[in-house]
Design brief:
Elements: H1 7-16, E1 29-30, H2 33-43, E2 50-54, H3 60-68, E3 71-76, H4 82-88, E4 95-99, H5 107-115, E5 120-125, H6 131-140, E6 145-153, H7 154-161, H8 171-179, E7 180-188, E8 193-194, E9 201-208, H9 219-231, H10 237-242, H11 251-260, H12 274-288
Parallel strand pairs: 2-3, 2-5, 3-4, 5-6
Antiparallel strand pairs: 1-8, 6-9, 7-9
Helix pairs in contact: 6-8, 9-12, 11-12
Length: about 290
C-alpha cells in the first residue's frame, strides 16, 4: 500500500476532490517515500502501539502508520480533507479520523478512552507556525507519551537540540529537553513536498523522559524563570528576571539568587544549564514563599 506517496497519485486525489491548498493551515504534503520511511523508522512504531497523527492531510503517512501500528487516531483540522481521508483510508480497520483542532482537544481523555491511559506515540507533519504551541500543549498537559516524531522547520529542530552558550539555545531548547531527549532523524529539502515550502525541514524524534531530568518545587515557576531569562536576549539574566512583571523580585533578591548559585551577576541566561535553571527557580520559589 502507501501508493499515495507517488506525486502523480497525490495530484489525482487532489483533482478528484477539487482540493485547494489552504495557506492558513500551512499545508505541504510529503511526496518522498525515503523520507516517509525515515519518519516511520525514527518513530519505531510497533504493531501493538497507539499512534496519534496530527495533520494527516490526504492520508499519505497515515497509510504507512496503519500498516505498522495497532491503532491510529488521525486528527485533521481541515473539513475539506475529511472525505479525502475517508476515501484513502477506507480499506483500513485500525484508524479513526477526527475532524478537530488539536489545540482544542482533550488528548488525555482520548488516550484514556482509546489506550487505557498507556503512553502513546505522536507523529506529525505540522504547519510550522503552530509547532511550538502544539508540542508544549502535549507536554504541559502531561499526555502520557513515549515519543513525538515531528517534521519541523530546520532552524526549529536546531533550537530544540541546542546546548548552553550557542546562538540557538533558548527557552524552546530548555522546554523540550525538560520533557524529552531530541534526536534528529533526517533533513528534508523543499522538493520532497507538494507544494514546495520556502524553507528546509527536519524530522526530529523527541524521546520522552519517564520523569524530568531535574526536580523542581514548581514546574510553572521554572518555565516563568526560563522565559524571563530569554525575553530580552541581549540583557543579563539579572535584568531579564528583574524586568519580568510576573516574578516581582527586587534587584537585590535576584542578585542574591544568582550569586547563591556561584554565578557572576553579569551572566546571561544562555549560559545556564537546565540544572542551573532548576536550582535558580527553587531559590526564587523560596524568595516568593
Amino acid at each position: 500500500m502507501g501508493e499515495l506517496i507517488q506525486p502523480q497519485k497525490t495530484i489525482e486525489i487532489l483533482q478528484k476532490y477539487k482540493f485547494h491548498f489552504q495557506k492558513r493551515y500551512g499545508q505541504n504534503f510529503l511526496i518522498d517515500e525515503r523520507v516517509m520511511q525515515k519518519i516511520i523508522a525514527a518513530a519505531s512504531i510497533q504493531s501493538d502501539e497507539f499512534v496519534l497523527e496530527i495533520g494527516p492531510g490526504i492520508g499519505t503517512m497515515t497509510q504507512f502508520l496503519c500498516e505498522n501500528a495497532g491503532y491510529v487516531a488521525a486528527v485533521e483540522i481541515d473539513q475539506n480533507l475529511i472525505p479525502v481521508l475517508q476515501d484513502t483510508l477506507g480499506s483500513y480497520r485500525n484508524v479513526e479520523i477526527i475532524n478537530n483542532d488539536i489545540l482544542k482537544m482533550d488528548i488525555r481523555s482520548l488516550v484514556e478512552e482509546k489506550n487505557g491511559g498507556q503512553p502513546i506515540k505522536v507523529v506529525a507533519n505540522l504547519p510550522y507556525y503552530i509547532t511550538t504551541p502544539i508540542l508544549m500543549g502535549l507536554f504541559e498537559s502531561h499526555v502520557p507519551l513515549k515519543s513525538v516524531t515531528v517534521m519541523v522547520q530546520k532552524e526549529v529542530a536546531e533550537r530544540m537540540k541546542a546546548v548552553p552558550g550557542t546562538k540557538d539555545y533558548g527557552a524552546l531548547s530548555l522546554a523540550v529537553q525538560y520533557y524529552a531527549a531530541p534526536e534528529i532523524a533526517a533533513h528534508v529539502p523543499p522538493n520532497c513536498f507538494m507544494p514546495r515550502p520556502k524553507v528546509a525541514s527536519t524530522v526530529i524524534c523527541l524521546k520522552c523522559h519517564e520523569k524530568p531530568p531535574v526536580q523542581v518545587k514548581d514546574e510553572r515557576l521554572l518555565f516563568a524563570v526560563i522565559r524571563a531569562s530569554f525575553n530580552q536576549r541581549r540583557k543579563t539574566l539579572a535584568n531579564g528576571l528583574h524586568n519580568d512583571v510576573q516574578l516581582q523580585l527586587s534587584k537585590g533578591q535576584i542578585q542574591y539568587c544568582i550569586t547563591g548559585l556561584g554565578l557572576p551577576v553579569s551572566i546571561r541566561g544562555e549560559a545556564l544549564t537546565l540544572e542551573q535553571f532548576a536550582k535558580l527557580s527553587d531559590m526564587v520559589y523560596a524568595m516568593i514563599h
